[in-house]
């Protein structure tokens, strides 16, 4: 007997949503809902009961395991049960080797022998269910090994332990692995030392695979592809047939090798541009909202695992003074499996299955002024990659490109904001924003690589790369879009935001630790005017973004911060969030 227990968190309950009710809820794996005292009524009048938590005794009586219970207050619980799980042994190895030329950590002899023994046993059919290694995992792992051998510096090429494991296991593996995996592992028949002819002669099983195999030969050698070639491959293979892998037009091993290979080779601007623009016309031309200003928010789709995620609440604040905001993302995404805007909206009872056309209506609604669009509704081709992305382990190029989407356009000025973590991706993101033709663009190294700037003191032990609160961007000095203007008409900037310079007291960032309910608790308390770290972060992120993007009325930072405070203290921002939850159900 299986059970999927979700609380129905109603619209009318949020206005009575006291912080202590959330604090009294526990976040154990067995907890399936928050405890509320009574029934509540949602927008269209359906009477909903918040379901009680199951304790371990009841679970035993019903014959349920923890894996059968979905805890909607924890971000990892939003993973679809339909997705096959990856093999953890190989996934741990992929975390070490499926990355860049300086970040890769070669496997020790013990680790390498364990990994190759697991691959052999899986290929021989000795591992079942979630222990069986998928083709996507094999493709990603062997692509990483091949690229490391062909193109990486000596320090991150194969370790002596890896070489010994390969010499021991490859003569056995070559007898049981399918031809596509052998091709990825040894495309020229020269890496593994046995001189096999399978790799050099492999062409794929259909026209689509033939094109992908040809591109992979270049990628596995450490090379790069042109814009049209990458875009053509993506359009050929996507969307994946998620429910029927056997009838898919391309092997997931080849696709995963292609995706992780391009990331390991560090994508060129033209390759990233292909990922960004490949499916712009999937739903036809984007709708145009009749608003004077629109900001597109590109948060990392895989969410936050540690710290308060503020963007949803910042959007409610900025909408109060005419700065419309469009958020986009997914409910759940690997590798972090963190808290997302879609999880929070769904937990609070909003409709999260809105189309870009619905989002246009919400942006134009004078009682709302912001909207959220799920990749599931706006770009099914990229959304179909979620399962493969989990088995790749590391982020593919699309993880960067998906942050710079333009699912709705505006009649007035447009801006884009995106988060980043690794140094070197700030300029490619800004390049993609300029290609999108928006008037202003901003990249932020917030906490966890997300958009939330912090008020905490800068750590004495500075992490590699740019510090947290580093910002870089551009703004056009006229109504002409960035695609139309030249460098003289565009103002470029980069800076580190120090919250103390604007009157904020240093505070540690609130921890959420994957708790969706905790993140909501912090955000709603702040929108009710409760002063503290979450309140300060929402004010800081609204006002600074307004100023850096060159928004009307934000020329002076103090004035920009003051109007953000007024939006909260007056109750307007909370009301707009409540309006969003209510009105979103009228658009389905």
From TrEMBL:
SUPFAM superfamilies attached here?
Nucleoside phosphorylase/phosphoribosyltransferase catalytic domain, Nucleoside phosphorylase/phosphoribosyltransferase N-terminal domain
Q: What is this protein called?
A: Anthranilate phosphoribosyltransferase
- What Gene Ontology molecular function terms does this protein carry? glycosyltransferase activity; GMP synthase activity
Q: Give the record's GO CC terms.
A: cytosol
InterPro entries documented for this protein = Glycosyl_Trfase_fam3_N_dom_sf, Nuc_phospho_transferase
User: Is Transferase among this UniProt entry's keywords?
Assistant: yes
Q: Which domain of life is it from?
A: Eukaryota
Glycosyltransferase among the record's keywords? yes
User: Which N-terminal residues, if any, form the signal peptide?
Assistant: none
Which keywords does the record carry? Glycosyltransferase, Transferase
Native source organism of the sequence: Quercus rubra (Northern red oak)
Quote the PANTHER family the UniProt record gives. ANTHRANILATE PHOSPHORIBOSYLTRANSFERASE, GMP SYNTHASE-RELATED
């Amino acid at each position: 007997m299986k059970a999927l227990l979700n609380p129905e968190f109603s619209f009318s309950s949020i206005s009575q949503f006291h912080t202590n009710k959330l604090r009294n809820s526990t976040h154990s794996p067995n907890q399936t809902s928050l405890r509320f005292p009574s029934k509540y009524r949602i927008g269209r009048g359906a009477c909903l009961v918040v379901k009680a938590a199951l304790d371990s005794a009841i679970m035993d009586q019903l014959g349920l395991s923890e894996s059968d219970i979905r805890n909607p207050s924890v971000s990892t619980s939003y993973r679809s049960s339909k997705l096959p799980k990856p093999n953890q042994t190989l996934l741990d190895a992929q975390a070490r080797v499926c990355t860049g030329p300086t970040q890769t950590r070669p496997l020790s002899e013990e680790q390498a022998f364990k990994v190759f023994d697991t691959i052999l046993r899986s290929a021989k059919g000795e591992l079942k269910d979630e222990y069986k290694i998928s083709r996507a995992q094999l493709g990603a792992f062997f692509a990483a090994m091949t690229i490391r051998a062909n193109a990486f510096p000596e320090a991150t090429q194969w370790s002596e332990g890896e070489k010994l494991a390969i010499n021991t296991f490859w003569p056995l593996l070559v007898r049981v692995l399918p031809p596509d995996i052998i091709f990825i592992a040894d495309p020229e028949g020269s890496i593994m030392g046995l001189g096999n002819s399978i790799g050099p002669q492999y062409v794929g099983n259909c026209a689509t695979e033939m094109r992908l195999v040809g591109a992979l030969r270049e990628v596995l050698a450490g090379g790069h592809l042109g814009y049209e070639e990458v875009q053509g491959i993506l359009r050929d293979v996507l969307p994946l047939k998620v429910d029927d892998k056997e009838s898919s037009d391309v092997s997931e091993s080849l696709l995963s090798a292609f995706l992780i290979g391009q990331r390991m080779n560090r994508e060129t601007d033209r390759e990233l541009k292909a990922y960004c623009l490949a499916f712009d016309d999937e739903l036809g031309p984007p709708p145009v909202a009749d608003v004077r200003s629109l900001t597109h928010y590109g948060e990392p789709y895989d969410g936050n695992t540690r710290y308060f995620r503020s963007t949803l609440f910042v959007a409610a604040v900025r909408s109060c003074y005419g700065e419309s905001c469009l958020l986009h993302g997914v409910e759940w995404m690997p590798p972090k499996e963190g808290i997302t805007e879609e999880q929070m909206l769904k937990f609070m009872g909003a409709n999260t299955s809105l189309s870009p056309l619905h989002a246009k209506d919400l942006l134009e609604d004078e009682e709302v002024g912001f909207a959220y669009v799920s990749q599931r509704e706006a770009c099914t081709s990229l959304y179909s990659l979620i399962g493969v992305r989990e088995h790749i382990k590391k982020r593919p190029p699309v993880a960067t490109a998906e942050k710079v989407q333009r699912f709705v356009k505006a009649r007035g000025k447009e801006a884009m904001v995106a988060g980043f973590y690794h140094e070197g991706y700030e300029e490619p993101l800004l390049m993609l924003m300029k290609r999108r033709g928006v008037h202003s663009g901003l990249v932020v190294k917030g906490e966890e690589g997300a958009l939330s700037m912090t008020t905490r003191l800068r750590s004495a032990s500075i992490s590699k790369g740019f510090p947290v609160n580093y910002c870089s961007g551009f703004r056009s000095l006229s109504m002409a879009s960035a695609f139309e203007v030249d460098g003289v008409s565009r103002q470029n900037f980069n800076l580190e935001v120090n919250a103390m310079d604007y009157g904020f007291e240093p505070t540690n960032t609130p921890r959420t630790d994957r708790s969706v309910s905790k993140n909501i608790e912090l955000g709603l308390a702040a929108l009710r005017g409760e002063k503290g770290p979450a309140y300060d972060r929402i004010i800081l992120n609204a006002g600074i973004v307004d100023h850096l993007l060159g928004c009307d009325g934000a020329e002076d930072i103090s004035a920009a911060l003051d109007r953000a405070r007024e939006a909260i203290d007056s109750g307007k921002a909370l009301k707009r969030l409540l309006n969003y939850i209510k009105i979103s159900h009228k658009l389905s």
